[in-house]
Write a structure and sequence with these properties.
Rossmann fold; 2 domains; 5-stranded parallel sheet; 4-stranded parallel sheet; 12 helices; 9 strands; globular; binds phosphoric acid mono(formamide)ester; binds norvaline
Length: 303
């Protein structure tokens, strides 16, 4: 695997391979078994947006793997003053062994990959969040024993999380249902692909989407970069909340996942969040293990 730009680029087998390696790395870390699979390698981490989980899990992950990570805020880089991604890619390729980038435009990630000569990992764009969904799939398998056959329901904004969950869910054999407002639907091409390749529904009827769900997933109403729309979005998304009423139509052992950060009382009630906190924080922990697997697949000697 050369890069991780979006889940659409991976086969179902490659996704399962990453999850298997992630499970192994998690086991080894828990048992104090050293795995310096990226000894001497350096990952640059470019952030144009804030982060807690992505930043810390990539940095700790590189340390665990025997390598080093550099935190590169776009505020301090020339890329933040307009130096083209094309040039940044070619310069950083001379110093680093891989780049993780969190940014706005998916095209910036794709440009780094096409112009640089080192692996590029997408740490979130407005379009998708592949690392998060690999951790989500790992968590579903851990809690449910398997992924295929489960019904995954996403409630909320049809942007980066929804797009990646649809692709990751369909590629691993889940039924996927998304409930979102008409003007906030997921990417049209992804929805078309999902209908052609699996069982997929997009509706504004929350109860229909959540009916018999095995996993319910939600995300903030206003994503990073949309802070100015937050008040307007509170009105548009008011009914798109994971609460006890919604949970009552789901499967009785339904899991609840949230990529975090969460806004209690908005997309999820405090009651539902706390009732499913073990699942949600396992999910957050699994960012570390899943991303270490991605880094090994992209930057390791034996891919
Ligand atoms: N879920 C997630 O990506 O969290 P951060 O924004 O804290 O990295
Ligand atoms: N949709 C959210 C996801 C955060 C992990 C955002 O882009 O801010």
């Amino acid at each position: 695997m050369k890069h991780l730009l979006k889940l659409m680029d991976l086969s179902s087998e490659e996704i399962i391979d990453i999850l298997n390696l992630a499970d192994q790395l998690k086991y080894e870390k828990k048992h104090g078994i050293e795995h310096h699979l990226l000894k001497g390698k350096t990952l640059g981490m470019i952030f144009r947006k804030s982060s807690t989980r992505t930043r810390v899990s990539f940095e700790v992950g590189m340390f665990d793997l025997g390598g080093t990570a550099l935190f590169l805020s776009s505020n301090d880089l020339q890329i933040g003053r307009g130096e083209p991604a094309e040039d940044t890619a070619r310069v950083l390729s001379r110093y680093l062994d891989g780049i993780m980038i969190r940014t706005f435009e998916q095209s910036e990630v794709e440009t780094l990959a096409s112009m640089g000569s080192i692996p590029i990992v997408n740490g979130l764009t407005d379009y998708c969040h592949p690392c998060q969904v690999l951790a989500d799939l790992m968590t579903i398998r851990e809690h449910k024993g398997s992924i295929a056959g489960n019904k995954l329901c996403f409630i909320g904004d049809g942007n980066n999380m929804a797009n990646s969950l649809i692709v990751g869910g369909i590629k691993t054999g889940m039924k996927v249902a998304v409930a979102c407002p008409k003007d906030h639907q997921p990417d049209a091409e992804i929805m078309k692909w999902a209908k052609e390749n699996g069982e997929f529904l997009c509706t504004d009827d929350l109860m229909e989407a959540a009916k018999d769900a095995d996993v319910i997933y939600t995300d903030v109403w206003a994503s990073m970069g949309q802070e100015g729309e937050a008040e307007e979005r509170k009105k548009v998304f008011a009914k798109y909340q994971v609460n006890d009423e919604l949970m009552s139509v789901a499967h009785k052992n339904c899991m609840v996942l949230h990529c975090l950060p969460a806004h209690r009382g908005e997309e999820i009630t405090a009651e539902v969040f706390e009732a499913h906190a073990d699942e949600i924080f396992d999910e957050a922990e699994n960012r570390l293990h899943a991303q270490k697997a991605v880094l090994v697949k992209c930057m390791g000697e034996s891919k």
